[in-house]
C-alpha cells in the first residue's frame, strides 16, 4: 500500500502537544459551563447576536433562543473589527446587559476578550471566555486564559492548521486550565462564494487527535444566512459536540453580521431539524438545563 | 445592514452561465443512469475501487457493494497519475472487466475518460462518463462530453471556484447534453492534515445556483479511510444528492488509494448509518433498482 | 538547530523524479528554439498578444516587439476560455498568420495546443509548443509532447505544487524529449487584489531542483498591466532565464487579456529597464539573434 | 475591453481606508528611525538574529552586519512561538542587551511587542516597535502603537489580504501615528516547498495604494537560508524600500530560525549584490548613517 502523507499527524504524534492529546487522556474531557456539559452525549447549542447592540435587541433574542432550546447565550461586547471605523462594541455596558439577561433566563454567557488588560473584567461577567480567530495565536491572551478558572471557547484562526490550533489550546492547558472547547469556524481559501470555507473535516480530525470538545460556527463559516441550516446539520452529522450560531431578532437591522444571522423563526425551525440529525447519529439536544433554572 | 460580498454570486447572477442556472430551469434536473435517478428524493450511492486491478478484485468488490445497497459501480481503467512511473490503469482490458460485472450485477458503470481520442471507446463501455478533477478545464474533452448521449459525472477541480465549476458544466450543456452530475471532491488549501479540504458548503451553494444534481466524494475529499464515514454522513445532511466512494476488498493491497478506501465491512456499516441520516433529512437510500435487474 | 520541514523537497530527493532532477544532470539544459537558447547566460524574452485576433494586430505587434529586442513571438490560436461563450481563438487560421509573420520577422513562434487530436497540426506550425496551466496535468497531452521533436513550454498549473510541476515535466522527459522550459505564471491563493499570486520563489527552487530552464509570465501572474514591469524586473533578479509577456498594439481593444497587456511603448521602455537588471545579476538580454535572420 | 476584477481595489478606492491611502497623501511618507529614513530613495537594511540569545551572539552579529552596511538592528526579546514549550525569548534581559549594543554601534533597534501590558516597557528600549504577523489584527495592540511616538514596523498577517493589511495600518494612523512601515513577509498558500509564499506583487500594490514605506522579509518569506539572497534581490527589483533579514553568527547553533538565517559571510556577500540591483532600479543602499554616530 502506498504511504499516506496525511497520516503523519495521526501516526507521528510527536508534533501533537501532550496535554491536549488523546494519547495523554483517552477519555473525552467534559467542559462544564454552569451546568451545561460539552463533550458528552448531548449537543450544546450556543446562540445569540454577533454584538450586543441594545437592551431590547439582546433580551428579545435571548428569550427566544432559550425557548427554542439554546442552552448558552452568545453576544459580543468587545468586537474585533477589520476597520477602525466600524462599530467596536458597547464594552462593559454590553457585559452588564449580558449579566442582567443571564439572571432572567438562566442561560450561561459566552463573550469575547481581546486584551490582556481587560481579561479580569470580562471574566467577572462571563461564564465562558471566548478567544476569537484573530487572537488564536495571541499568546499572552492564551496564557491569561490558562490561568483563569473559567471555561474557554477557543476559535480556530482563519489561517491556522489543525496542528497550530491544538498548539494554541496547549498554551491554555499548559497553564492548568483544561476546560477548553475547540471551535471550527471556517478557514480562508481561494473560494469566495462563501465568507470562509467551513472545514468540517476538522471535526473528526480534532476529535481523533484530542480529548477536548469540538463545536462548529456555521455563521462565520459560511457568511450566508440561508446556508447556516445546511451546514449546522452537516456539522452534527460529522460528529460535532455543538454549534455556535448568530441569531438576531431583526437581522436586517443588525449593526454587524446581519447577513449571516438567523432570525428567530429560522432558529426555531432549525432546532427542530437538528434534533432529528442528533438522533440519527445517536446524540441528543437540549436535555440538560442550565443549573440556575 | 452591511452588504455581504458573498451574495454577489447569488444575487448578481450575470456571472452564472445560462443553461446550468436555476434561473433558467427552476425544477431539479433528474439524471438517469440506466434507471438510477439522481437529483430526486433518492440518494444515489456510487461505490467501487479506485482502479480496476484484476477480475477478482473488481468482481468481489462489486458484488459486495451491490448487496449493501450501492446502485452504481465505479472503477478506473485510465488513471490520471501525478507521476509517469505510477500504475496508469489497465486501459481497455479494465473496461471489458467492467462490462462483464455489469452484466452479472446489473449495476451501471461509471469510469473516467482522459483523452478526446478515447472518448468514443470509453463511452461504448460506460453508462456514465467521468471527467476527473485534473480535466475540469480540459475544454475539448468537455465539448466531447456535451456531444455524447451518456450522462456525465463532472468532478470539481481541486482549485476551481464554484463559478468556474459551473462554467465547466456549461461547456457540456452548451453542446446539448444536460445529463450532468456535479461532484464536490475536496479543494486544495493550506491545511495538510487531510489530502484535500472537503468543501461541503459547495453542496447547498451549487444546489441553489443550479438545477443539476450534486454528489460528494468523501474518499478523495479527505484521503483518510477512517474519516470517510463522518464526512459521508455530513454530505447527506448538507443536502447532497449522492455519494461516490472508494471501496476495495483488500484496501491494504490496493495499487492506488488504498489508504482512503473502505473495506467491504466498513462500507456495509456505513450504508446502515447513511440510511438514518437520509431519513432525518427527508430523503431515501436505495429504493430504486437498476432497470437491468 | 531545529529541523526545517521545507528542506524535505531539497534533501529528500526521492520524491523528485529522475529525469528532470539536477541530481541526474548537474549541467543546465539548454533549450534551443530555432537558434534562441534558453537556460544559458542570456535572458530570453517572449512577447506578443494573448490571442491572434487579426493580421494587422499580430503583425504590428510582432514587428514592434522584435525591434525592441524580443526574441520569440507568442500568440494563441486555440484559447482555453473559462466560459464556452467567450472567444475561442482563430484556430488554424491563427496558426497560418503566425507562420507568415515568422517568415517576415525571423522570430520563432510559440503557441498553445489543447487537444491531442490537434497536436500534429499545431506542431507543424510552431517552433515551440505551449502546454497551458489548465493542461499541466493533462497526461495524454504531456505524452504527446514527449514524443514530439519540438521544444515545449510547460506552464505551471495554478494549483500545482513545485513537486507536481516537476512530475508533469517528467511525463515529457520520460518519453524522450528533454527540450522543456518551465514557466511560473502565478498560483491561486486567497489574495484577490492580483489575478494570481506570482510565486517568484519557485524560480530559485526549480533552478535548484532541476536542470531545466525556468521563465516567468508576469502578465498572467499579476493580471495587471501596470504591475507587469515591476514583477518582470523582480523575476530576472530572482534568477529567471527569461520572461513571457503579453503585448498588444491596442490593449484597450484586445479581445482577451487587454487589461494585463503592455502596449508597444511600455514594452520598449521595460526592455531598457530589464537590460540594467540583467547586467546587475550577471546576465545578458538579446545578444543572440534567431538563426533565420 | 473586458473588465478586470482585480482593478476593483485600485479603482474602487472606497474600501481603502482614508489615512493610509495615497489618495489622501500623494507624497511618500518618510519614516525616520533615529536618522535612518525609510520611504525615500535609499534602501534600508534591517539585519540581526531572530531572537536575542546571548551577549556574544547579539554583539558579534550586530558588529558584523553594521560593518557590512546594515543600518538598523533587529532582535527578538519576546518571541511568539507556535508551541508553549519552545524558547519564549529572554524578555527584558534581551531588551537590555539590545540597548547596550545600540550604544556601541549606533544602530537603531527594532524589536517585537506582543502584549499591551508590555508596550510601554518595550517602547522604552526600542527605536522602532515591531508588530508581528500573528498580531496584525490584534486591535488593542495596534491602538497602543497608534498612541505611541515611535515608528512602527507592521508585518502582514500570513493570511491577510492587502486590503486587511492596510486596514490594520489604518488602526495605527487613526490614533495619530503615521510613522508606519509595512512589511511583506510571505503568505500561507498550498505550496509547502517554502515556509510561506513571498508575495512580492504586494510591494507594487501597496506602494500604489498607500504612501507608506514597504519593506520585505525574505527570511520568513522563504524559510530557506539559501533562497534568501535571490528573493532579497527580487524584492529590491520589485520596488521595495528595504529589507529585514535574519542574520546569525552561527546559524547552525541558533535556538530559532537558524535554517533561514544567513551567516555573516553570506550577509556581506549579499549586501554587495544588493547594491548592484539598487543602482539598476535607481536607488541607493547605505548612504545615510544613523544619527548617533
Write a concise synopsis of the structure shown.
Four copies of one chain form a homotetramer. The first copy, chain A, has a single domain, classed as Aldolase class I (TIM Barrel). The first copy, chain A, is 34% helix and 15% strand.
Please provide a written account of the structure.
The structure is a homotetramer of 293-residue chains. Chain A is α/β, with parallel strands linked by helices. Chain A has a single domain, classed as Aldolase class I (TIM Barrel), CATH 3.20.20.70. Chain A is 34% helix and 15% strand. Chain A has 10 helices and 11 strands. In chain A, the strands form 2 sheets. The first copy, chain A, has an 8-stranded parallel beta barrel with strand order 3-4-5-6-7-8-9-10, surrounded by 7 helices. In chain A, strand 6, helix 5 and strand 7 form a beta-alpha-beta unit. In chain A, helix 9 packs parallel to helix 10. The longest helix of chain A is centred in the C-terminal third of the chain and has 17 residues. Chain A is globular and about 45 Å long.
Amino acid at each position: 500500500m502506498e504511504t499516506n502523507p496525511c497520516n503523519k499527524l495521526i501516526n507521528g504524534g510527536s508534533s501533537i502537544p501532550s496535554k491536549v492529546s488523546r494519547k495523554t487522556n483517552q477519555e473525552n474531557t467534559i467542559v462544564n459551563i454552569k451546568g451545561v456539559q460539552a463533550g458528552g452525549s448531548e449537543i450544546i447549542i450556543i446562540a445569540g447576536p454577533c454584538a450586543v447592540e441594545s437592551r431590547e435587541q439582546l433580551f428579545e433574542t435571548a428569550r427566544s433562543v432559550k425557548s427554542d432550546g439554546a442552552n448558552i447565550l452568545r453576544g459580543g461586547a468587545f468586537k474585533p473589527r477589520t476597520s477602525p471605523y466600524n462599530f467596536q462594541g458597547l464594552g462593559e455596558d454590553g457585559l452588564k446587559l449580558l449579566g442582567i439577561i443571564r439572571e432572567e433566563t438562566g442561560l450561561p454567557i459566552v463573550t469575547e476578550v481581546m486584551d490582556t488588560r481587560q481579561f479580569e473584567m470580562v471574566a467577572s461577567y462571563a461564564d465562558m471566555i471566548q478567544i476569537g480567530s484573530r487572537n488564536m495565536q495571541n499568546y499572552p491572551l492564551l496564557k491569561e486564559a490558562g490561568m483563569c478558572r473559567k471555561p474557554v471557547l477557543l476559535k480556530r484562526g482563519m489561517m491556522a492548521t489543525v496542528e497550530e490550533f491544538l498548539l494554541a489550546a496547549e498554551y491554555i492547558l499548559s497553564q492548568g486550565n483544561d476546560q477548553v472547547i475547540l471551535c471550527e469556524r471556517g478557514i480562508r481559501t481561494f473560494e469566495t462564494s462563501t465568507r470562509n470555507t467551513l472545514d468540517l473535516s476538522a471535526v473528526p480530525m480534532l476529535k481523533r487527535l484530542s480529548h477536548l470538545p469540538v463545536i462548529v460556527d456555521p455563521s462565520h463559516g459560511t457568511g450566508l444566512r440561508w446556508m447556516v441550516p445546511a451546514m449546522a446539520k452537516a456539522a452534527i452529522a460529522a460528529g460535532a459536540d455543538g454549534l455556535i450560531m448568530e441569531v438576531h431578532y431583526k437581522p436586517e437591522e443588525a449593526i454587524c453580521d446581519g447577513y449571516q444571522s438567523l432570525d428567530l423563526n429560522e432558529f426555531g425551525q432549525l432546532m427542530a431539524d437538528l434534533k432529528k440529525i442528533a438522533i440519527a447519529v445517536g446524540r441528543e439536544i437540549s436535555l440538560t438545563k442550565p443549573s440556575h433554572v
